[in-house]
Structure prediction request, 130 residues.
Amino acid sequence: MLKEFKKFIARGNVLDLAVGVIVGGAFSSIVSSLVENIFTPLIGLILGGVNFSNLSLTFRDTKIMYGAFIQSIIDFLIVAFCLFIIVKFVNTLTHKKEEEKKNEQPAKSADIILLEEIRDLLKNDLSDEQ
Prediction:
C-alpha cells in the first residue's frame, strides 16, 4: 500500500495539482487585497462613501455583516474574471500552436525523396521515348 501511495504521489498530475492549489491560494490573496484596498473604496466613492465591509444589520443581539458578504461576491467575480482571461489567453496560444502544426508539412524521409526522384526520372524517360 505504501508503494502504491508513493506511485500516486509521484505522478505528474498530482504534483501539478498541488502547485496549482498553492498558486491559486497566492493569487486569491492578491485579488482579495485588490478588492479590499482598491475596488471597494472606489465603489464606495461612486456610491457616496459607502464602505461595504462596515455594512451590517443588527437584529436583537446579532449583528449581520452583509457588507462582508457583498465584498466576498465582488472578490469572487474578480477572481472568476481573471481566471476567464487567463484561460482564454491559454486557449488562444494553444489554438495558434495547433494551427501552426497543421500548416507545417512533415519532413520527408530520405527513402521517400529517393523514390520520388526515381519516379520523376522514369516519367521523364517515358515522355522522351514518345
Observations:
- The radius of gyration is 31 Å.
- Residues 66-103 form the longest helix (38 residues).
